[in-house]
Amino acid sequence: MKSYEVAAIVVAAVLGLDAVVHVYWLTGRTWPARDVRALSRVVLNAEVPFTPRVLLPLIVVLIGGAGLVLARADLLGGWLPGWLPGWVPTVGTLAVATGAFVRGGAGIVWAAGIGASRDTAFYRLNLIAYTPVCLALGGAATVVLTSS
């Protein structure tokens, strides 16, 4: 297996897992927090409703991004519809890489204490999980993007 194929599988797995977590929240459950308000503060550092109107588009984007990255690495075995232009997986992979790097960059700013209080769960999760995962995701998507 080639390195860009492994990278694509990693990116798709992370995006897929994130989609599953969002589906879980769609059921009304609030793990790892006690309620929706606390969940929003832990995950987003802001108060945002965890409603179908908010979560469903995110789930679609996450699954679509995963599929496009796999398609860019030619791992879907010709599953893409014939009417879909060939450049779409490349643009989708670029969007995944860009989005992950932007979130990673924001995470670095928050880790510096700008816009996030150092005594919150969000700050700690951002520092140990969100930012490193986003930067790694952006790097892996870039590997897929630059593959021939």
Structural summary, described in words:
The protein has 148 residues and is mainly alpha-helical. The two termini are 14 Å apart. It is 70% helix and 0% strand. Helix 3 packs across helix 4. It has helices at residues 3-26, 36-44, 52-72, 88-111, 121-145. The chain is globular, with a radius of gyration of 16 Å.
Helix and strand arrangement:
Layout lengths: L2 H24 L9 H9 L7 H21 L15 H24 L9 H25 L3
Helix pairs in contact: 1-3, 1-5, 2-5, 3-4, 4-5
Instruction: Report the count of strand segments.
Output: 0
Biggest sheet features = none
Strand content: under 5%
Question: H/E element string?
Answer: HHHHH
> What general form does the structure show?
globular
- Number of separate helices: 5
